[in-house]
Amino acid sequence: MIIDEVEAIPYRIPMSKPLHFASGAVHDIEHVLLRITTSEGIVGIADVPPRPYTYGETTASVIGILTGLFREVLVGADPLDRAQIHARLARTVGNPTAKGAVDIAVWDIIGKSLGVPVHRLLGGYTRKLAVSHMLGFDSAAALVDEAHSYIERFGIRTFKVKVGRRPLALDIELTRSLREALGPDVELYLDANRGWTATEALQVLDATSDLGLTYFEEPDDAREILGRRRLVQLSRIPIVADESAPSLGDAAREIQTGGATALSIKTARTGFTESQKILGYAEALGIDVLMGNQIDSQLGSIATVTFGAAFEYSSRRAAELSNFLDMADDLIADPIRIEDGFVTAPTGPGVGTAIDEEKLAAYRIDRG
Ligand SMILES: [Mg+2]
């Protein structure tokens, strides 16, 4: 089995509810569908979410690298020679979500060629992950309503609250309103996307210390290393590295140098192979991992479930799987369902989902 063709198809789907956060905003999702076809006609698929404010990738750069340098690596390669493919992709620096998608599409091919779901190939621990829903910037009243409605409609019991605004009181009051409205049993944690300084983040930690928050993700810029270390040392809850740990090496550096005490794993940027290495590293050290969301489409979210459900250590906590609920539509044929607070990995071979060709034709933006 060798790879014959690599396609990178840009598409755009509007958000039904635009998402705002400290490092940016998303009004449409403009993603790239990666399709890798083998000599046997097996098609591996994955979604690429370009996030210029986090990784510097754009739709054009993703298409350029996938159909240029990465295509040269992939065409003629045997998908089973994954380590060989990775070694050759690694000669190009950066491009994390393009590389992540190649890994996922290659695993999809392997699963399809064996007739086995990839969540079982990877580990087969469980099929279900509890869902954590992300609350973007809005008024406290609107977010309390949103949380109530997600609890009622989907049984979701964990919320990640986007913070990082000034004045700090805005987000301190928001967090307090959510805790008071939702009661003590709903899990709440914060993500400031580097919106604050370490000193501001410490003020927020002090002001919310009675609210039972479980994690604080990227409170400040991790590159301001002494401020971040002081924050990590003084915080009683884990400080989660997300955009400061987009690779295995970055994750190890942040943890070993005291820049964080927990890790967000996103399959959109580390695929399944590198995500598994990060997971093993975290498990060995006994630090918590959160399965994160790159504002993923349903296709991307299924990759997160596939990985997260495969291992005991990644399935312990609620995974961020619900950003797709704010999108007007998706490319996949069989939509994700959130039932009683859980998403279940598909049973089909590969990553287990298929593209609706009519939807792809309607949303692709590479044909006039
Ligand atoms: Mg984050």
Brief summary:
This protein has helices spanning 52-55, 59-67, 69-74, 82-89, 96-114, 118-122, 140-154, 168-182, 198-207, 225-234, 248-256, 267-270, 273-285, 298-308, 357-363, and strands at residues 3-21, 24-38, 43-48, 128-135, 158-162, 187-191, 216-217, 239-241, 262-265, 288-291, 319-320, 342-344. It is an alpha/beta fold.
What does this protein look like?
The chain is of the alpha/beta class. The chain has 15 helices and twelve strands. Strands 4, 5, 6, 7, 8, 9, 10, 11 and 12 form a nine-stranded mixed beta sheet that branches. The chain has a three-stranded antiparallel beta sheet with strand order 1-2-3. Helix 7 (140-154) packs parallel to helix 8 (168-182) and helix 8 packs parallel to helix 9 (198-207). The structure holds magnesium ion (MG). Magnesium ion (MG) binds at residues 191, 193, 217-218, 242, 264, 292. Residues 191, 193, 217-218, 242, 264, 292 line the site of magnesium ion.
β content, as a range?
Answer: 15-25%
Number of helices: 15
Q: Which regions are unreliable across 5 or more consecutive residues at pLDDT < 50?
A: none
> Architecture of the largest domain in CATH?
Alpha-Beta Barrel
User: What is the CATH topology descriptor of the largest domain?
Assistant: TIM Barrel
Oligomeric composition of the shown chains: single chain
* Overall pLDDT: 97
The count of β-strands is 12
